[in-house]
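Support case: magnesium ion complex. Customer-provided input:
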Amino acid sequence: MSAILAIESLSIAYQTEKGLLRAVDNVDLRIEDREIVCLVGESGSGKTTVANTILRILPPNAIILDGRVLFEGVDLLNMEEEDMSKIRGRKINIVPQNPSTALNPILNIETQFCEFLKHKKGIRERDRCREIAIDLLGRVGIADPERVLKLYPHQLSGGMKQRVLIAIAISTSPRLLVADEPTSMLDATIQSQILDLLLDINRREGLSMLLITHDLGVAMSACNRIYVMYAGEIVESGSTERVISKPLHPYTIALIDNAFLSFKSQGIKRAVSGEPPNLIDLPSGCRFSSRCPMAFDKCVKERPNLVQRGIDSVRCFLYHDASA
Ligand SMILES: Nc1ncnc2c1ncn2[C@@H]1O[C@H](COP(=O)(O)OP(=O)(O)O)[C@@H](O)[C@H]1O
Ligand SMILES: [Mg+2]
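Agent response - structure generated as follows:
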């Protein structure tokens, strides 16, 4: 397998009034051809910053401190904006978190589809566009595409809007879909339908996917591999099966406890107690040490490296000796 996307040593900060906020620190992440890779972590861990870096849609106060984002072997971060705009929305597409704000409220679905196809594929003829749109809406499980094309966003449910956006996202036959919390704004019953649709699209369209989620349950049911992010760093990665059955990092263990507890207690989740560190004033030791039930002296003083073994990695002193 060859990597569609290889993020190498990526570090991103935001300029803020209180100083530099280190949102992403030395992140490595690979996505192989046709793979679904999950980036999991609680809110504020830097997931959206990674997604926005891949698409090069970071806000103006973001600073790329270091790193490369290789897409099909070419560094996106070095590219002229003109070349990047041929990749963004064509070879790499996004499935947004909030389908309601991603669609234009004053245009019907047909017009939005046709605007996108005109801009990204040079298709100007209305009949041809309608034909393509009907086919794509069928492919995302919309039973009556002709009727849906005539509707405005407010006439569609959240799940239907997300289906429309997924149809638009696959219209350019992208190699990579970046889905940043694609189900978190939807009702629980609709969430699994949209997740199933994304899995189906991965299989049928043969594309790769970066699925970003704070919900380990979503990652478990969808991904080939998982990267766990905490306070801007990758703290663990591996196959979904290995990460779920034999988690290594105390933070991953806490996340899994939490996910299973929420099944048992029907939605009442126990948060990992404590708060993540301040990203403007980071501790010198392990970033998880203040919340870690396993922490010892060294954890507060020194920063653990990411120890890599095959596709598995973990950033924790408990495993440093084992790798020597
Ligand atoms: N434009 C911005 N300016 C300053 N800080 C930001 C900005 N965007 C995000 N952040 C901060 O960067 C950190 C990572 O945010 P984000 O990438 O959105 O995380 P996640 O998607 O995991 O919730 C958070 O502390 C967040 O407050
Ligand atoms: Mg986010």
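The mean pLDDT is 93.

Case will auto-close in a few days if no follow-up is received.
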